[in-house]
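Give me the fold.
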Amino acid sequence: MTTIEAAVFRGAGQPIDVRSVELAPPGRHEVEVAIAAAGVCHSDLHMVRGDWEHRTPVVLGHEGSGVVTAVGDAVTSVEVGDHVVLSWVPSCGECRYCKAGRVAQCKTSQQVIAAGGTLFDGTPRISVDGVDCFHYLGVSSYAERAVVPETGAIKVRSDAPLDAIAIVGCAVATGVGAVRSTAQVPAGATVAVIGCGGVGLSCVQGARMAGASRIVAVDLVPAKLDIAAQLGATEIVDGRSGDVVQQLAALVPEGLDFVFDAIGAIATTEQAIAALGIGGAAVVVGLPPAGQSASFDPLSLAESEQRILGSNYGSCVPHRDIPDLVDRFMTGELDLESMISARRPLSEASAALDDLASGSVLRQLLVPNPGLL
């Protein structure tokens, strides 16, 4: 057992406790990683708010990067010293979805990793005062170290800065992937992105890289719209200035080819559908609280041959997409630094989530091991 510092969450309404926990060594097909940086994401905020159920206590964090410090038996894809980006959908490689190439839908990962809060063998590697402490999405990156499945530790080039590339594992893979893989946006298409946080700005960049002719960014925060314009948006819509659908229609009267809802609120999903043109697709990328329903006009949808697409993790294939995105960052095609608002010590995990909830920040990074940067 190794004693580390980690951010422990015990249930909705309770404070996050950054404290010492015990971490067991990696088992078969598992990897221990010293965390260089962990992104603060809305999925963590959903947990803290109680929007989603999860076994507790749990170490939060599902986006991160670091250096491999130990490997378990039968690990072949990484070795000690490798730089890795962590993926919150470690694939089993055996279920029907993995075999069909739909790695983001890995059934075993959903049933064991996500629902159970453990690793693939059904047990956790973390304990608090002798009591099991669960993993969040097989990552738990709000910690000095994490033990993750081998398929959740994606080897990347060692010259990439470990702090910036931490956000590739969730925000960037999700947003760019929604454009490239889920929607398969062609060159010349018209695109709108509702919500300009880390995922939405990644959608904007994905649309730019795809060669979209018009990219309309929508948000309530002017500073976020300024960054969206810097990252490739050709036009902006301030949601405070009136009805979003009407503003989009004024810019693109024939309706949009693709609208990405990067927030996942019921209102924004309905806006995305309402703003479509003939043959258009609304892509739901942001994740809403469980159990909610959105409304749309099915007759209009059918007559206009429109589509509503769900995008989980940007239809990502982590071992293919994450190294490619890191390469694109290193060549300058992908801008990560503009999406990072702050770098903070692990002790500020709770404050970072509060700032995220306020809507005033983009991606914040917790830095458990500053010596790795």
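The mean pLDDT is 96.
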